[in-house]
Amino acid sequence: MSNLFWLTEAQMARLRPFFPKSHGRPRVDALRVLSGIIFINRNGLRWCDAPREYGPAKTLYNRWKRWSDNGVFARIMVGLAAESTDPKTIMIPLSLSAAQSTAGQWTRLI
């Protein structure tokens, strides 16, 4: 697939301060996994339909589920919105825990 979504290094630099600390094993490539999560949600795909370039669908889902349950994505959205100086880019949905509702907001904030 040539139309895959990839976060840039500049975008990743803005997101890294919000990542939880890794305990024990090194974390799987954050760029690949987060790009995959955003791609899945932006396109309304099932996890099992994730392009293989993003890695195993189970890894994408597990990271999304764990970080959603722990409020990581909500903190990212609030933090990025607080940094933004353009009021047109700040669109925080009511349910920050629902990745489907936040998918479109990611690329505008980062």
UniProtKB/TrEMBL annotation:
Source domain of life: Bacteria
Organism: Puniceibacterium antarcticum
Protein name: Insertion element IS402-like domain-containing protein
PANTHER family: BLL5188 PROTEIN, TIS1421-TRANSPOSASE PROTEIN A
Location of the Insertion element IS402-like domain: 7-77
